[in-house]
Write a structure and sequence with these properties.
Layout (H helix, E strand, L loop, with lengths): L1 H8 L14 H20 L5 H16 L4 H18 L2 H19 L2 H13 L7 H19 L10 H16 L5 H18 L4 H15 L8 H14 L3 H17 L1
Length: 259
């Protein structure tokens, strides 16, 4: 449950924000306005990134309103259709990521989740950004947890192969000396991945987190916010470890130095 709870805040990496109106009526009104804008763009022959983004925002808002599944699925299908026709690979991946996230946290449809996970994974560029890899890890961590529980049947693609694929992508990014911030983020994600796979070897992961914190010292552009969230979430399970106390203290000092 600890790691499942951690997964819930990783969706904050999404660049599409849910509409937060004062009540459901306001949110529905915004969806209607967005649909009218999409129709207007179509009438002018101007369908493109704006329409794709609006369609995806609508789908996410309908999901947040907990509308019936057919309506939510239709909204996501529309956003994906527009992305494939009028936008690029990033927009398509963005749709698949949010569809997989919806399958997991709203629908608990693991067959659909697996299909959308594969579409996201297969759509990654040859040299993905860390942002893409963070999202890949988010989906993989759900895949790993649910496959271990027997809820996802991997078929002809063993879970071990998926794990190795994600690991190699993160290791490749971690080795990028030309992208120090992304490299550091990848290293911390690898530590979290190892912790999920082998929680009994938590000390090794905590030591890697400490190394990441040390490396982040002096890197003004590197945000320790995500590391702070991870460390805080791990406290109930690992707070008794001496290594954890040292990790938290070092993180606190590093963050204070940046301030």
């Amino acid at each position: 449950k600890l790691f499942a709870d951690h997964l819930k805040y990783t969706d904050a990496s999404s660049t599409v924000k849910e509409i937060l109106g004062p009540n459901d009526t306001a949110r529905l009104r915004q969806i209607e306005t967005s649909n009218e804008r999409i129709d207007d763009l179509e009438a002018q022959g101007l369908l493109g990134h704006e329409a794709v983004n609006l369609a995806l925002e609508n789908a996410i808002s309908l999901r947040g309103l907990e509308r019936n599944r057919d309506e939510v699925d239709a909204a996501f299908a529309r956003s994906l259709r527009l992305a494939k026709k009028y936008a690029g690979d990033y927009a398509i991946r963005n749709c698949y990521y949010n569809m997989a996230w919806t399958d997991a946290w709203w629908q608990e449809d693991w067959e659909s989740f697996l299909a959308n996970y594969r579409c996201y994974r297969n759509g990654l560029p040859e040299e993905p950004r860390y942002f893409d890899l963070e999202r890949l890890y988010n989906l993989w961590s759900i895949l790993f947890s649910q496959a271990k529980r027997g809820r996802i049947v991997m078929g002809d693609e063993p879970l071990e192969n998926q794990t190795e694929f994600v690991r190699k992508k993160l290791e490749s990014m971690a080795a990028r000396t030309d992208l120090p911030n992304s490299s550091l983020s990848a290293k911390s994600t690898l530590a979290l991945m190892n912790l999920l796979i082998d929680p009994g070897n938590a000390v090794a992961s905590l030591r890697i987190f400490r190394e990441c914190i040390r490396e982040s010292s002096g890197k003004i552009e590197f945000s320790t916010e995500n590391l702070i969230k991870i460390v805080t979430e791990l406290e109930p399970a690992l707070g008794d470890h001496e290594e954890y106390a040292q990790l938290f203290s070092e993180l606190d000092n590093t963050d204070s130095d940046k301030d």
